[in-house]
Design brief:
Length: 213
């Protein structure tokens, strides 16, 4: 007669092993994208770096686009976690936006490879078909998050003006963060963060003034 408790334990261990393999594959995918670029990404290169069989990579992620999607999803998920922690307890739109920008720079320090993947996605999203859909989804999520911050404390959903401003802010953030990723050492991050905040809030003030009746 089977012992149910032992069966459940074995099933749990098997699932844990599968999750660990998937996580290793995604982590190595991110590392390859950040250090070697998408051209070097393949089931073989990931398997070699992750020290797993190529068949394991293909089993979880049959195509290259599946690896890309998994990597971007992991990067975005970590970024969202940091944003949620940063804006928790904030009481105004300004506080939320200020904390949001801080969280982006904290993300650069904590996950430098993640930041490189996002910079890559932004660049290749403009020139490569396989990245365009992913980039569009990331852009939509980012703009919606900023619009929600601008709308903080108000009833209903963000209005057209807030959505327009959110788009401009995101473009400013992406442009500046891309430059930071490619050219700035960690000792300059604090100064760059303050400069970016000044630029963002200057944009907010200018846009609000221009839209007054």
């Amino acid at each position: 007669m089977a012992v149910k408790g032992v069966t459940r334990q074995h099933t749990h261990l098997e699932e844990a092993g599968e999750n660990a393999t998937r996580q290793k594959i995604v982590a190595c995918t991110i590392s390859i994208l950040a250090t070697e670029g998408p051209e070097k990404l393949s089931a073989f290169s990931v398997a070699k770096r992750a020290s797993v069989r190529r068949s394991h990579v293909v089993y979880y992620y049959p195509q290259k686009k599946d690896l890309l999607a998994a990597a971007v999803s992991e990067v975005i998920g970590k970024g969202q976690e940091m944003v949620l922690v940063a804006v928790a307890g904030k009481k105004t739109a300004v506080e939320c936006l200020d904390a949001y920008i801080d969280s982006l720079f904290q993300w650069l320090v904590k996950f430098p490879e993640h930041a490189s993947v996002m910079g890559m996605l932004h660049y290749y999203g403009a020139v490569g078909a396989e990245f365009k859909e992913l980039n569009a989804k990331v852009r939509e999520v980012g703009e919606a998050r900023i619009a929600d911050m601008l709308h903080f404390g108000k009833s209903g959903t963000p209005n057209q003006r807030e959505r327009e401003l959110a788009k401009l802010i995101r473009e400013l953030l992406i442009g500046n963060l891309t430059n930071v990723i490619s050219s700035t050492d960690s000792s300059q991050l604090l100064a760059d963060c303050q400069k970016l905040k000044k630029a963002v809030f200057g944009l907010v003030d200018t846009y609000q003034e221009s839209k007054k009746p």
